[in-house]
């Protein structure tokens, strides 16, 4: 520790060069007689009596920060400056919120524009979602079978939310199933022949059924020329429509409405208003029993005309029809893909792809399900049912050759290409895709829904739920590796 009577003096560069001591100690008052003058170098003494030269040492960072903090604290912001600062902060916050809102609005606008464009394409019949290339064949162990009907299933429908399946059979019964659990939620038992006056329900083979797009009404038609209307939620009987003079073979609700179209072996189409429990009108044109009917949101429907070998598009308001020919046998089933295209199946074994703007099929696959019989007497397996995943490029067909076939529609629906087959033993009398496209449901029986030409004893009457798996989407890393 240095003596309190000595302080550090500045180094004289002359003496430092000549080997003189770098530090010279001076007494207080040296060069200032009496010690009354000021020292040449300022001195700061710490608490521990340490000498610090203000001329030789710079201010430490810590001290500098503390000094700046003190100076900032000592600064008093005027009310006007505070108002200005807060106003700037508020304006910046408003600008950020406006920018975020503009981004959200732009995103929502894009979504709405996309939906509107899809709706326009759907109305024009030009919407085609290309999903067939991604669908994979399921394993046999993944297919679920629901059994409850005693006789062959003839028809089925799926609710628009994919939660429920309704099925009907030749035993005159209707069953409501829960899709997830596969359990029966409700059963409407059929009655015996001759009990029509006292039995609430069908007493003859049910051939067709339809459900409204809002899931409110269920309609069923039977061989006794009757149409029954049920409340889909509770399976309560509501109305009975009479008027057809032959078995009711086709039913369909116009999407978004409660207008019901029905087709019959009496060769007529009838229009009903279910809300009003009212008959509207009848249309004629087919030359043979009508075997199938379908419609979407337009005020029109399509029908298959059985042995008259025609497909017809009915324009309800104009009471007019368009006639199409192409199959060589009885056309037993038909389904709309979108408002402009449809698929049909016939007992000559062919599957046809149609446009409402062409009188002939855009594409026809002959012997779609192969042939059967002895050599020289072979004939094609009848196509007993078809289904279409709406507004997509995927369709399905069923026969009695122990398989359901899935097909891909080519560009602009100009071609049908086989995708894969799913093993199903029995007559596939009905096929329906779920609205989501996640599964396909097949109604299977030992006999054809319209007759008893063959009986497959090894088949079991039931509902087959076939999952439609999608191919996994490759990750960006996998894409880079592939490239």
From TrEMBL:
<feature type="repeat" description="WD">
    <location>
        <begin position="324"/>
        <end position="364"/>
    </location>
</feature>
<comment type="function">
    <text>Component of a nucleolar small nuclear ribonucleoprotein particle (snoRNP) thought to participate in the processing and modification of pre-ribosomal RNA (pre-rRNA). Part of the small subunit (SSU) processome, first precursor of the small eukaryotic ribosomal subunit. During the assembly of the SSU processome in the nucleolus, many ribosome biogenesis factors, an RNA chaperone and ribosomal proteins associate with the nascent pre-rRNA and work in concert to generate RNA folding, modifications, rearrangements and cleavage as well as targeted degradation of pre-ribosomal RNA by the RNA exosome.</text>
</comment>
<keyword id="KW-0488">Methylation</keyword>
<dbReference type="InterPro" id="IPR019775">
    <property type="entry name" value="WD40_repeat_CS"/>
</dbReference>
<dbReference type="GO" id="GO:0034511">
    <property type="term" value="F:U3 snoRNA binding"/>
</dbReference>
<feature type="region of interest" description="Disordered">
    <location>
        <begin position="17"/>
        <end position="78"/>
    </location>
</feature>
<keyword id="KW-0687">Ribonucleoprotein</keyword>
<keyword id="KW-0694">RNA-binding</keyword>
<feature type="repeat" description="WD">
    <location>
        <begin position="199"/>
        <end position="240"/>
    </location>
</feature>
<comment type="similarity">
    <text>Belongs to the WD repeat RRP9 family.</text>
</comment>
<comment type="subunit">
    <text>Interacts specifically with the U3 small nucleolar RNA (U3 snoRNA). Binds a sub-fragment of the U3 snoRNA surrounding the B/C motif (3UBC). This association with the U3BC RNA is dependent on the binding of a protein called 15.5K to the box B/C motif. The association of the protein with the U3BC RNA was found to be also dependent on a conserved RNA structure that flanks the box B/C motif. Part of the small subunit (SSU) processome, composed of more than 70 proteins and the RNA chaperone small nucleolar RNA (snoRNA) U3.</text>
</comment>
<keyword id="KW-0677">Repeat</keyword>
<feature type="compositionally biased region" description="Basic residues">
    <location>
        <begin position="37"/>
        <end position="46"/>
    </location>
</feature>
<feature type="repeat" description="WD">
    <location>
        <begin position="146"/>
        <end position="187"/>
    </location>
</feature>
<keyword id="KW-0007">Acetylation</keyword>
<keyword id="KW-1017">Isopeptide bond</keyword>
<dbReference type="InterPro" id="IPR020472">
    <property type="entry name" value="WD40_PAC1"/>
</dbReference>
<feature type="repeat" description="WD">
    <location>
        <begin position="283"/>
        <end position="324"/>
    </location>
</feature>
<dbReference type="InterPro" id="IPR036322">
    <property type="entry name" value="WD40_repeat_dom_sf"/>
</dbReference>
<dbReference type="InterPro" id="IPR039241">
    <property type="entry name" value="Rrp9-like"/>
</dbReference>
<dbReference type="Pfam" id="PF00400">
    <property type="entry name" value="WD40"/>
</dbReference>
<keyword id="KW-0539">Nucleus</keyword>
<keyword id="KW-0853">WD repeat</keyword>
<dbReference type="GO" id="GO:0006364">
    <property type="term" value="P:rRNA processing"/>
</dbReference>
<keyword id="KW-0832">Ubl conjugation</keyword>
<keyword id="KW-0698">rRNA processing</keyword>
<dbReference type="InterPro" id="IPR015943">
    <property type="entry name" value="WD40/YVTN_repeat-like_dom_sf"/>
</dbReference>
<dbReference type="GO" id="GO:0032040">
    <property type="term" value="C:small-subunit processome"/>
</dbReference>
<dbReference type="InterPro" id="IPR001680">
    <property type="entry name" value="WD40_rpt"/>
</dbReference>
<feature type="repeat" description="WD">
    <location>
        <begin position="241"/>
        <end position="282"/>
    </location>
</feature>
<keyword id="KW-0597">Phosphoprotein</keyword>
<protein>
    <recommendedName>
        <fullName>U3 small nucleolar RNA-interacting protein 2</fullName>
    </recommendedName>
</protein>
